[in-house]
Amino acid sequence: MTSRVSFLLSLVSLPFLLLASPSSPGGQSPVGASFEPSRFPAHAATNVNPDTRLVLTFPAPPTLHNAGEIRIYDASNDELVDLLDMSIPPGPKNTRTPAPYDSLVYDHIPNKLYTVREPDTNRTHRYQINYIGGETEADAYHFYPVLINGNTVTIHPHNNRLAYGKRYYVQIDPGVFSLDGEPFAGYTGSSAWTFTTKGAPPAATATALVVAADGTGDFNTVQGALDFIPDEHPGRITVFVRNGRYEEIVYFRNKENVTLIGEDREGVLICYANNGVFNNSPHQRLPTVSYHNTRSVFALTGSKGIHIANMTIRSLGEQPAQAEALLVKGDELIVSHVNIEGSGDAPQATGNIYITDSKIQGFGDNVLGYGAVFFRRCDFVSTYGPHMWIRNSDANHGNVCIDCTFRTIGEVETTIARTNDNGGSGFPYCEAVLINCAMEGIRAEGWSVKGEGITHIHYWEYNSVSLDDGQPIDMSERNPIARQLTMEADAELIRQYSDPAFVLEGWQPAMAPFITAQPQSVRTRQGEAVTLAVQCASIEAPTYQWFKEEQPLPGATAAELHIAKPRRRDEASYFVLISNGEGSVRSEAAVLRVE
Q1: Res 406 pLDDT > 80
Q2: Topology of the domain covering 7-91+127-197
Q3: Residue ranges of the domains in the chain?
Q4: Do residues 248 and 272 lie in contact, with contact meaning Cβ atoms separated by under 8 Å?
Q5: What is the distance between the alpha carbons of residues 338 and 345, in angstroms, rounded to a whole number?
Q6: Would you state the CATH architecture of domain 514-594?
Q7: For residue 11, is pLDDT > 60?
Q8: Phi, psi (5° rounding) for residue 89?
Q9: What percent of the chain has pLDDT over 90?
Q10: Taking the model in full, what pTM does it have?
Q11: Does residue 71 have a pLDDT over 50?
């Protein structure tokens, strides 16, 4: 779906735009201050993606002011296609509001910090609005129109305002920015800063898309790529995200068979200072309302067969908040090799979800779960509160953790999970099963149980050991509601809960392999052994086949290729093809030089 809100509709939805009094588009005034920032897209650039950010890099950190406008015009007819009014605050100020917005004061909004217990419910307060993932009221998010990182200013136009095959010009009013007390004169007229977008989008039949923040891919933003993908797509589409910082809220719904994979787990960062105060909504006890996703950084709802892999998703801010990094609501969802760093809840999960080889870090209630979630080899990290608050009903399983670690930062001690009444109701069927898990920083009682109707709870452990020395955990002070499984008495239970299909309503997770570390080129001497190696992630065991100059090497079917005594004839370009039942991936080439 390529969602595009018309500018006329935007004028209705965003009443503050009616107050705009843009400069006359007829002049051609360049910057008038004594400093000239570099620009992206560059002036007169062509082949620009319509979801581009506008980036200014100054010689020193600039100052943002709460006055003036940033405008984008269609150069063919001087039509105003987007406007950012800097006199409008981004959203309710809170303890995680980033600089400089945390110190800006606006005329029509009280200068106060709002909280979860005291949100801003005054509907006469006007804030910035951006529609993300759709065009309904539920898709209206508060957002930061300008973000500053060091010397770099990133301007975030509203989503889906620019089109393919268009030439645009940008105007920035004097006074929006200053540098060392000197106002930045900005850009006026129709020729000071122009760019032209690509002639056409990717083909509708494309099965692979590339996101690159530097504009070298099909899209500059993750949201731009997801907006392009139609709902209920029958075949799988892979979105490859190149290394970069993607400071954006990501949301989509009703999509199928999409793989979102990062170039590097640490190198791809999707982040935002979003939370339940900045984007507040009347949440219910259960996630049944369509706008339950608004406080997260990355959210998907009503979707099936979505795979998220090899990246970091982070909620920005130092103070605790209700701020999920990842919120998923759907079926047959896979999260693999992802750092999920939130506050309050790190992920919130509803449906059938498989999470493997991922880090889950938050302030407490790290996993808020309504669905069946199977965790394998995950690292749970708490900076304060319980690792899990599980809310599943008797209609589905809860959280099952296999070969995971549970730890805390510093001297904090907490529990594995808690069960509390919420909104007048309890969760009598909540389930957490730990098998072969290691832990530290867990209180002796292990589990926190409060509330009514707890007789059906499954708090089960098998072979829990100390993360420090691998010795069995002393269970003598465990909460009496918890159950210690033994192989002698519970072998069948242990076998069942170790099987994802048992937990996830018969679904056996599978996804194509992906490479987490590419083979590297090597220079060696004749006769000195050399090894080319690749690292990959695959839910099922993959197969490997190494190639030399496009020809398969007999017997070279492991993750490492050993050449015991290389000679000049071994100089070549090598790559490996990795396959499983879901697909194949080809590594980058590694060149061997022999001196």
Answers
A1: yes
A2: Immunoglobulin-like (2.60.40)
A3: 7-91+127-197, 231-503, 514-594
A4: yes
A5: 15
A6: Sandwich (2.60)
A7: no
A8: -65, 155
A9: 80
A10: 0.91
A11: yes
